[in-house]
Protein 1
Amino acid sequence: MSTAFSAAKFSTQPFSTISHDSPLVFAKPTSQFFGSTRKLRLTSSSKFNLSRRSGTVVAVSDYVKQKTSKSTTSLLITKEEGLELYEDMVFGRAFEDMCAQMYYRGKMFGFVHLYNGQEAVSTGFIKLLKQQDSVVSTYRDHVHALSKGVPARAVMSELFGKTTGCCRGQGGSMHMFSREHNLLGGFAFIGEGIPIATGAAFTSKYKREVLKEADCDHVTLAFFGDGTCNNGQFFECLNMAALWKLPIVFVVENNLWAIGMSHSRATSDPQIYKKGPAFGMPGIHVDGMDVLKVREVAKEAIGRARRGEGPTLVECETYRFRGHSLADPDELRDPAEKDHYAARDPIRALKKYLIENSLASEAELKAIDKKIDEVVEDAVEFADESPIPARSQLLENVFADPRGFGIGPDGRYRCEDPKFTEGTARV
Amino acid sequence: MLAISRQRILGQCFQKIRPAVSELRSYSSAAKQITVREALNSSLDEEMSADPKVFLMGEEVGEYQGAYKITKGLLEKYGPERVLDTPITEAGFTGIGVGAAYYGLKPVVEFMTFNFSMQAIDHIINSAAKSNYMSAGQISVPIVFRGPNGAAAGVGAQHSQCYAAWYASCPGLKVLSPYNSEDARGLLKAAIRDPDPVVFLENELLYGESFPVSDEVLDSSFSLPIGKAKIEREGNDVTITAFSKMVGYALKAAEILEKDGINAEVINLRSIRPLDRSTINASVRKTNRLITVEEGFPQHGVGAEICSSVVEESFAYLDAPVERIAGADVPMPYAANLERMAVPQVEDIVRAAKRACYRSVPLAATA
């Protein structure tokens, strides 16, 4: 996979507009961030065709690194934000490690896909969202659910298949839904979540324009992997999102592997961020192992969407420390590659940053670690003690309107039969 | 009081002498006639004006006025935000519709024909049908997928398949198939108002046919219940079940059979899922013979399900084996004479009815 990204010109059109309300976008670091890229433009060679009205390709990692090393007085985050990010990433890691333990003890079953190593992407993006913004994910969705605010107890119970789970045990590891936290799944088919996310973004725009809910500026994030970027639905949605200027951010978690298929073996042009401008939206590549860089890019992309400027494609270069799923023997990946990324562990990097910049002390971070351990253990206990679903739950929730089961042999609607969902009625 | 009882007696007399031979068209005297196309168009119009959350999405639904002109005039009336012309991206825009439905909007997604829905079937089944279950009731999907289904005239193998059996086998979906204008209006309105995903299978050849409708049908609050079949024609000798275009054929066959003294009861299924098993079984218990008619492929079709249901519930009442009439077990040929042989015709229904009534030599089962 290529790592050299040449500096590209920023087309100023999408970014130079005076933004309106959201204080997030006006945070000091963001404007400084753009200042640095504008400076860079003067020095880069102008080989790129500026007549394309669409967004351009940019590699953020170098610029942000430059900026942070230059300025010692202005940090990218405050202490509270730093601790929040650290806690969220440790939460994700501890939870996934506990899932692995539970799986090998037989408490969890089926397909379980763990997110170790990719926490920076989830935390970097989702912690910037409001409750009403939505997140659509894939089967690797436990940490997205936790970052979005679904309680650990609900997620763990769902994984154990208990009735107290967030989907009452009917969804499972790959199908996490939460109406309250606007987590729209949880899809097993890759690429399936992308049109759903585009539809959620469409609703936000529809509410504003047709239903006249003037302040509806909800943004949708679609998370998916590198393998998905070769799927037809991905391209169809890039087209329609850009065509209709929908408030969505397409976040590619490029962990270089789709089960055992390496990204370079499956893709004609492995640089995914380049596919954005082909459809008329900016494409950005960012180092997904560094939560601060991800957060900077996320701020801008989410801000763009909130202002109504349309979609963005963000490619996060990240890595999963474990196999594709707990059933994957993970034999094809080179140990040297694994070590290289293990050295760039996002949690360790953030810890180092916080301590070096005197934002937090070792003791404070250890206290957070301990607190998270307790939360995860409590979640396991709760899930263990929760009851399994009753037999009558089998036929529930198939339809929102229960008359969908039709008319029974006695001429009345099946759902009117009091014994219908006790498992005694014939289906 | 005497006057009332006289009226009642008169009414009963009228019912007895009502000619059983005439088709639906000539029943009502002063009723208005509208085409199925007008029925669908007016339903969409009324539902869109009643609820601002309803919007249309599909290829050519806007400026082209609809590939089959079903959505004519709606773009001018409701604007491009509510009548969306999409690019040719079935999977994409179906998924977008489902995502919008997650948030409480009510999309009506049009497929130019249901053959193209195969490109989007992942979203119809996996995201629309199963979501309410997977999320344990948190997220319902009030979406309607509509479009022409089944064989048209001379359009070849890839444009002629009937998808009723495929969609009706999936839990979480409701599958409706109207026949006449009253069905079209009532069922489409019920589908749009329904909180679950509905697959609405129309028929291209019926779009231009007009049927009489009463004033009640033309009222904007009219709707038909989902899951109830209609007995189009009452009879005593044999039950013929059909849906969509085959209802018309079955009614014609019933007229021909009447001349031979066979009184056929024709059931218009209207709802393929949930199937109105109670009406079908009640009818079979009355007539003791059953013929199922459908246009789609025979194996694992709608007729197979009806046959099983009757054998399970009314076995003792059957006096003859159930006759299943379906399309030929081949991809639809193009040549006109071959196409005619690949789709059930009125003569096939008549012949099957006679076999069921033991009026002819029993035929060996054809492929």
Note: Residues 151 and 160 of chain B are 4 Å apart (CA to CA).
Protein 2
Amino acid sequence: MMFSSDGFLTDQPPSKGPSQTHLFTSFPNSAVDLNDDDDDDDLLLDNKSNITQSYAYKPANEENLSLPLPATNKNNTNNEQLHIWQLEYYQKYFQIDTQQVLERLLGSITPKPNRSYFNSTIRHNPDLYGPFWVCVTFIITVAISGNIVAYFQLPDTDFQIDFSKITLSAILICLYWWSMPTVVYFFFRYYIKCNEYTFLELLCIYGYSLTIFIPVSILWMIPIAWLQWLLTIIASVISGSVLIVAFWPSVDSDRKSFNALSMLVVLFAHLFMAICIMMVFFHVSDNNINSKIETTMLSTMASSTTTTSKV
Amino acid sequence: MSDDQSFFLSTSKPIEIIEGNITSASNQNELSTLDEPIIETVKRDLKAVLRKFGHALIPRQSSTLLQQWDLWGPLILVTVLAILLQSDTTTASSGMQFAEIFTLVLIGSVMISINSQLLGGKISFFQSVCVLGYCLLPLLIAAFSNNLLLYLPYRSMLHIIRFLIVMTAFAWTMYASIRFLGQTQQPSRRMLALYPIFLFYFLVSWLIILRKPFK
């Protein structure tokens, strides 16, 4: 259907007469396609760019009158340039299923000396979902357990949720999650000069290595000092050994002592992080108990002196 | 359509000029809602918000929450919840507490919506913020009843009763949001999308349990 020279819709192809000054070549969009998602504006932008390309009207080709396919169609995404400000750009880091996440979580807490779980599970598909939400869960459990511990240590009236401590722990843990892979990446790239791990895989493995600390942070609430130290050491040894098993194949060169040293550095960094968290939030030492007794003694002494002075 | 009319006039052949009103039906509706008194608009919006409250409380099969999303309901709910959870008498720190809860709910909803979009969910950003906000309603009811209960004696029993009320509200909230948001993901990733929602509502219920009343 198209406009003929006298302005009415006809079925005949256009014939540009001598008096015609203009030929309709593009048509505006019809009403919104109800099957579309009411999604972000990125889709509308892509639709508009497709329309402006179909400027020349071919009467035999009726398809130009219909709307182009929405960009959520899987076949279309390969043709478009995804930019860093579009959400779809980051979707490739989240191609993961529940089953795979559970496998990776389980693999990060069971060190198997022969088979590196890294090679079997993460290598072909690193993701950012697992590490991010493991970190967030860790921060939340540390915050909640630390608050419970503080609740029992302080008198009842003074208790407030200390958000500054929570933000501090959040910053520390995220910093650890990002800085250790950076260090390891540069170490592998410039010192050992083998480019075996991408930065994303390192992020992934470090994020998953924090899973064991989640149940440990709940157990850290038990106010027995030696138990807290024992838990810290066991947890960091287990997750550190998973890391070492993952890194060992690429460090395995002639310099045996150097390899052992570098792996020990990784282990000690892990231990250091765990000790920091424990000391800041949970540590029950004799100091804490003594200080509470002292404050109560001081308050009773102050009240008794005031009563004696009044008498 | 004025372009067409100029096209008609520029040719030399005598043509019949078509005249008439070109407003379509949708234009007329928009004009009419612009002219109506404000009380009508407010009443209509309020009715929509209250209907969505009902849907959040008793999740049925309808998709009203998803298709006709609005952000008024979540805003009202979060503000009332933040006011209810204030526990300090000094104005400075009570302002801080209000800001804490508001920020927590805001950032939590944003992170969950981005997460479900990144996992490939078929729901838009504002729809998911809307659903998360509306599903806070049972927790709000629990916070309100907690505040009322604190005026009664029997402190130790009260703690247990408050805890049970908040846990029930948390389970109700999770059920409602699973009904609404669970359908929008592929089955293999459903748990991945629902776990952050669990964390979020767990944090909010934790804050409700923990707040102490005014002195």
Note: Chain B has a mean pLDDT of 80.
